[in-house]
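Q: Can I borrow your eye for a moment on a structure tokenisation matter? Would you mind producing a protein record, from residues through to fold? Write it directly below this note and I will take it from there.
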Amino acid sequence: MNHKVNEIQISYREKIGTLKSSSIKSSSQAAELIYKNWDKNTIGLHETFKILLLNNSNKVKGIYPLSTGSITGTLVDIRILFAIVLKTLSVGVLLTHNHPSYKLEPSEADKRLTEKIKQAAQLLDVAVLDHIIITPDGNYYSFADNGIL
């Protein structure tokens, strides 16, 4: 019988010091940062779901593109989302995805996914600060501002 198993190694390296990044203080500031860091060649092509990883001061540690889908949707694996959050020692997360259709209102699927992520985050003491939908022209919808987070 073989008793060998894989050794697990976890590492995290910052290229840009988090202390030099700005704190997220509002949905408009978050949306502006998200839009500036989105590939303008694909924002109107297909949906992409990303997470902004935050430290305890709401400073951005980084943006992680979690999934890329079709014109009308993308699948999010919550296990991978929280693997990234935990690996980066983030205490807060801001969810975001784009709507190539320019429609700002969240779908029922968007609302269900957000609630599911929020419930899982509570178990891990991770704050879900907002879920922002961005459109190709830079407009945005904030779940927090609209009282549905």
Remarks:
- The CA atoms of residues 36 and 138 lie 9 Å apart.
- The chain has a mean pLDDT of 90.
- Strands lie at 48-54, 60-68, 92-98, 127-134, 140-142.
